[in-house]
Amino acid sequence: MSLLEEIQSYELTHQCQSPFAKTRLLVRVPIAVIEQLNPTHKYLDLFNSTHYDPSDTDDYVYLQLFPNYDTENDRLGEKGFRNTFSQSVFAVTTTRRGFKATILDQRRLILDILRRLIDISETSAYNKYVPIKVIDFCSPEVGATYSIRYGAIAIDNYPSITGDGFLSQSWEFSFKEAQLRIN
Q: What is the reported pTM?
């Protein structure tokens, strides 16, 4: 049975539950990365095989996280009236959406997968960044159940690793969306 089939079978027989938080955050991961980092197919509860848009294929699944979540939006410029030579104009600003997620689940596999995704996105093509896809249930756009975001992930602090495949403490990563929004 392939990894994708095992994940789908697990999803059919188990409810999505986590003791860590209520709202989930999904990060798209190639199945090949998971098979490389998790050859024994452990921890199937970490993955979600749902397709959220036409770009999702059976070559990808989502890493399912239940983080403590804080938005961190960067406003570029100042909003408001500007004086010109003969009149006042109203200037809009742009905002780059982002968040900081604290991962309470101390399984090392989560950290390893995100580190590999960061490496892949930064080295996919010469002098070009390939954004990471995130399905954001924590802070979706107004009127939506979730938002699909593309951007960069940075791991803020690396916890020490225990000998049994777990981390010594919770850890954080930041996400910045590639798209600018008018504010």
A: 0.82
